[in-house]
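User: Last request for today: this protein with adenosine-5'-triphosphate, please.
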Amino acid sequence: MTAPAPFRASTPVFRIAGGLVAAAIAALVHVAIAPGEAARLEGERALVEALDLTDLALFTEARYGRHRSQADLHSAFQDGPMLAEHFPAGSMVPPARGFPPAGFADGEGE
Amino acid sequence: MGAWATRQRYLIDFAALSLWRHGARSLGLWLIYVLVVFVVASVILYGAAIRREANAVLDAAPDVVAQAMRMGRHEMSTGADIEKLRGLRGADRLEGRLWGYLYDTSAAANFTLQVPSGFDPRFRLERGEAIIGEGVARLRKVEAGKMLFLISPARRFLKLKVKQVLPLGSALVSSDLVLVGEADFRAFFDLPAGQYTDIAMRVRNPAEVGKIAEKSLLALPGHRMVTRADMRRTYEAIFSWREGVLVALLSGALLAFAILAFDKAAGLSAGERREIGILKAIGWDTGDVIGMKLWEGAVVSVGAFLAGTVAAYAHVFLFSAPLIEPVIKGWSTLFPRVTLTPTVDALQVATLGFFTVVPYLAAILVPIWRTASADPDRVMR
Amino acid sequence: MLELADVTKLYNQGRPNEVAAVRGVTLDIEAGKVTVLTGPSGSGKTTLLTLIGCLARPTTGRVRLNGEILSGLPEKFLADVRRRTFGFAFQRFNLIAGLSALDNVMLPAYPLGPPHRRLTARAMEMLANLGVDHRAATAVENLSGGEMQRVAIARALVNDPAIVIADEPTANLDGALVGQFLDIVATLKARGKTVLMTSHDGRISGAPVVDRVVAVADGRIAEAAA
Ligand SMILES: Nc1ncnc2c1ncn2[C@@H]1O[C@H](COP(=O)(O)OP(=O)(O)OP(=O)(O)O)[C@@H](O)[C@H]1O
Ligand SMILES: [Mg+2]
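Assistant: Here's the final one, the structure of the complex with adenosine-5'-triphosphate:
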């Protein structure tokens, strides 16, 4: 017959830590099983293939934003082909290395 | 339990008690810590997931798109152009694409009108039929079986029966699409037969894409070739840039927090110094004191890392990231309701963990070391 | 067993506020005996105890324990000696505020890592011997002066040290409690422990359990009584 174990301050710490670790593991399990995701992604890819789509429908607010990868290169007031952004004037980020598509020469690069 | 473990457990006991004693103050700081990790982890998780999705989706995109240029502007390609490419060996599926934009005044949004390629019978459309994306259906409040009316800038009307609404799961690529038959498309936009927006090409052998793009350029000197790699790079650059903006916006707050946390962790108050002196006087050695403080720091920082990251995971993948989505994904009237496949980039999360935990512990270590290795009488007074 | 050889202690050495708290003390403390240091306030008793208990280093001179010179050892070894050999009850208690009396008593044993249940029982026993076990769960800053004093003594004893050092252990205790404390000292002595105390209290220096009274004045040993 033993007395109940005396309270230890580390016990709640271990409980909380255990809870957090369990939640983290649950997240990883959720990643692994990702309910219905494989099928959804497959459907999305099939659509892209069937319709010959080239771009994400994220930036629909401007002509050069919607089909960003197809945007025409030299129109007046359009952003330059080297710019990483889709805003008319660039800031902060230098042009992407190796971005100029085949056939485009800017005098620099390879 | 081994002797080492028993001892560490006692040190954790004391660390926990000392956190508990400073209750509200430690809790407040910890919650801010969690919040900071939460925001950064949300950006990381969301960024990784949307890139992965973009990559997976663009895997199925055409290998090369040939786009006619005239005086440096985008021009229509012709049936003759397509014929010139047909002779190229290795070009598999070759097709003139028909797509264009329509500013829809009633929804105040831009739609993409497109003619589905003839290769997939599921998307074959008769005159007056349409398949629309989730965003179009949402903005125009139509569903399958209902009618959709469009007006062109030249005041042509198009009356369409919605045959199908594309599934929400593919909104990332299809949200603003209005798929119509070729005849409707040409009539609506007044486009003569034999003209195409551009030419999509699929290549049998992926290793030959570069070569075929080059040959295509020789065959069609007025065209520009966009390869799938270019498409990928475009989105990679967009997301990097947007993430960068977010981090730049956050950096001020991050710095302020870092100063706060480090000041708290590194500056020992007179009370804390005295406490360390007492512990040493009653038999703790320098290692015990440092171990105890490191446990305290580990409980705070590892706890904040785990809590922040798990909360960020839930935010991004269970609630679709309402707090950061507008910055990464952008804003528009027609905003696709994107669901993302849960992904965790182990390296990125590990990096975040490293930068959450290690600097904090390092900041604790130095002053404690100095205090704890002095004679107890010195620090006790 | 404990020898001080021509020990001096200067505080704030070389500065205008320099204090010579101990000036050339040579003292031999026998094992298994109860020794009491007496002397006027400010005469250097507490300073001597901190030197003996390895909480501070002498400015000059040597402190030897069982023939081993302690004063030159690095801090790492001193910590080990303190833990193995000494139990210290401070004049100003030096309890850790915010922790319960029981937690305070248990603290010195943490680095030794005994089973938690056994340590708790041992600490409760120490508190019970001094009649404060009913305050075990109370945070120490809420205890009365006498209760704090007894918790401080219990803490000094919890590791069962070979040498118990108590600085003014009865300053806040009434007659009955002083008797109880002397009983504990007698038990310790019977078990072969060495006890070293300071006291202004005639009830202590005159107690039969005390073997030796050393008078300290102005940082020096004034006389050694039997
Ligand atoms: N850390 C210190 N810094 C400066 N002076 C000190 C320090 N500690 C003690 N002193 C001085 O050294 C002298 C001796 O002090 P100590 O505490 O040893 O006296 P004491 O004999 O224990 O006195 P009491 O009986 O009042 O407890 C005093 O004059 C005191 O002011
Ligand atoms: Mg004193």
